[in-house]
Fold these 4 entries.
Entry 1:
Amino acid sequence: MSQETSTLTPDSYGQVYVVSYFKPLAGKKDIIIAGMKELAAAVEENEPRTQVYEVFWDEEEGVVVVMPKYADVATAEAHKNSTHLQEAMKRSTEAVVLAAPPQTKVLTKLASFVR
């Protein structure tokens, strides 16, 4: 699993938004989902400045979607270089569970609200 990201550009508050897509091979969906849940737990435990780390299943596209929000560029870089992410990427590569390399994009927030 490779995680190539474009330039980490923060919003006007310094925060960084990312979206990643993981396409499992046929019959490997449950393995990918379990791995992503494990990774999310590691992020929650070890990355206090990662503000949001959400994992979704997109049934229509057949992909796992990960949408983190980082407090700043340094936090996003720390995640990218974290031991738990590197280990998850290694396990994914060794297990041959992805149909294609992950697609990762940095997003630019245009507007939002939370209720």
Entry 2:
Amino acid sequence: MAAPSTRLFSSTPRGARLARQLALHHLDTWGVPHSSPASDIAALLVAEECRGLHLVEAFADRWDVLDRIPVGKTVVAELDLTH
């Protein structure tokens, strides 16, 4: 499996949509097909406005918040995928 790429997205609805599309594309290329249960859970976790961290906490197996220099934060979440 290739290493995930690092991208910065704006904190707007458009940025959330782009982040979600990219995550689902990566999962599909890694063998997790669109509309599978694992893909659906990942779609809920990626870039949800307002309720996002609640979803991350509910569904992710491991997660953390990292400081981004010079400003901002990045949420990293891991799922133990079985499909």
Entry 3:
Amino acid sequence: MRMLKLLVILILAGLVALVAYAYFADMTPTRSEVRTPLDMTDQPDGPAGE
């Protein structure tokens, strides 16, 4: 019974630590502009579906 109580306490402590890390850690993404050139030479002429 003592081992089960210890396991439950460790799991709860891990969950609290995970929530605290997610809340307090600096997890903002770094933003950067991405430009990708498109090659439009292989497109068929006319509207789609022809």
Entry 4:
Amino acid sequence: MTATEKAMHSLQETIAFYIREVEPFSLGELHKKSSEDVWSIGQMIQHLIQSAQMPMLDPQCFQKTGC
């Protein structure tokens, strides 16, 4: 397995971990915000998953500067 493949696998495992962690919460709990100026749990998890998926959109990203 190449370094890129290992990194992609690790990202996929991270996404699966985030999904497992939020399974116990109801949709209402995931959307609940303590105030308008903070993110909900759902927003935070969505951001983390999207951030982890970014390199998957461009596997060559690992080799580019500033990616």
